[in-house]
Amino acid sequence: MTMSVTLSDLIVWLVIGGLAGSLAGMLVTAKWEGLGRWTSLGVGLVGALIGGAIFRVFNIASGLESVSISLRDVLAAVVGSLIFLAVLWLLRMRKEGG
């Protein structure tokens, strides 16, 4: 199975990633300000790329692609952001514990 990613896919993932990082930051910190503007943006961008790739490879929620910036893209970016934050948390805990 090959995964083809277009430039428009990347742009959508990056734009939605900013929003997703903010949402993930608010979920993780339980605060309205989340992780802060720039950290949220960075987490969201990485999360959008991770989530977008995962959702495309495993064909998750493929029925949500009805608009240019789809609900699937938003969901993938939020999930990817949460995965990224979980990995960072695990790495931090490992470093502090050992």
Keyphrases for this structure?
single chain; mainly alpha; 98 residues; 0% strand
Brief characterization of the structure:
This protein has 98 residues and is mainly alpha-helical. The protein has helices at residues 7-29, 37-57, 71-97.
> What low-confidence regions span 5 or more consecutive residues with pLDDT below 50?
none
- Structural class call reads mainly alpha
- How big a fraction of the residues is strand? under 5%
H/E topology pattern: HHH
Share of helical residues: over 70%
3D structure, described in words:
Helix content is 72%, strand content 0%. It is mainly alpha-helical and 98 residues long. The protein is globular and about 40 Å long.
How do the helices and strands line up, and which of them pair or pack?
Blueprint: H1 7-29, H2 37-57, H3 71-97
